[in-house]
Queue: 2 jobs
Job 1
Amino acid sequence: MTTQQLLAQSLEQVVERVGDPAPLVYQRLFERSPELLPMFVGDTRGSVRAEMFLRAIDTLTDLAGERHYAAGMIASEWSNHSMNGVSTRQFDSFFEIIVEVCQQALGADWTPEIDAAWRSTLDRVIGVTARVSAAA
Ligand code: HEM
């Protein structure tokens, strides 16, 4: 199975187990970094959070496979977020928390193969943000 297939399949399993994982991702993000919560006060309907989560998933999926647009997407969102006061570490942490939530949802079914697929994709994210932040 390819890295992209492993991500897609494990995401399907996550949804079967816990439904939409986005609320769990934001819960964990704000528990770990409560200072980020005030940034979302204007997002009363949750649409920004929903869109942000979906874009992050699309980006990870592209990075795991064809990589048509992920690096550009990460670079432009890193830049927008950086202007809004989001550090590179905080930006990366959103992707890391997605992986943690998926791992927790799958429990014993989180295989070494699935783990390697997500870790290599995360490494690519961190490679892109390290490059763009160093060049900024
Ligand atoms: C902890 C890290 C992050 C924080 C604190 C954060 C914060 C925010 C905030 C406050 C907004 C609303 C900005 C506004 O309306 O002016 C936003 C929007 C957005 N973020 Fe993030 N972000 C993070 C990580 C990411 C990541 C990794 C992505 C990856 C693609 C991303 C994608 C987006 C997108 C696409 C929007 C626009 C959504 C919309 O307007 O509907 N964010 N983010």
Job 2
Amino acid sequence: MKKSRNTRQRGVILGILTAGAVHLTAEEVCLEARKILPSISLGTVYRNLNFLREQGLAREIRSSDAGCTRFEATRDPHAHFHCRRCHIVRDIPLPEAVAGIRWPEAGPIASVSSLDLHVMGDCPGCADT
Ligand SMILES: [Zn+2]
Ligand SMILES: [Zn+2]
């Protein structure tokens, strides 16, 4: 009984992360989830986000800059651009150099399972003002 409720909550939360708008804070996920599950608490949302992360289905994006953690569904490897003024987060392709990643003494790394690259700066909108 309890299990099926948890499964449903997880399904709703994963659905929110995979539907269009990515990089949501737990609070934003909670607001969306309440449209479907009106009584869901922020604590439950956090627990489910952590569960999805442990299962490899979601990814946590931390930036030193904006001071908040965002979540996205796990997809192809990509980097993130963070605007230091408006705090928007955008997916950007990984620089090509990352493909040949190596450390000097040991040669190429055998395999890369995950990679976290954050680029900070001003987005085009903020650069104009
Ligand atoms: Zn900006
Ligand atoms: Zn992303």
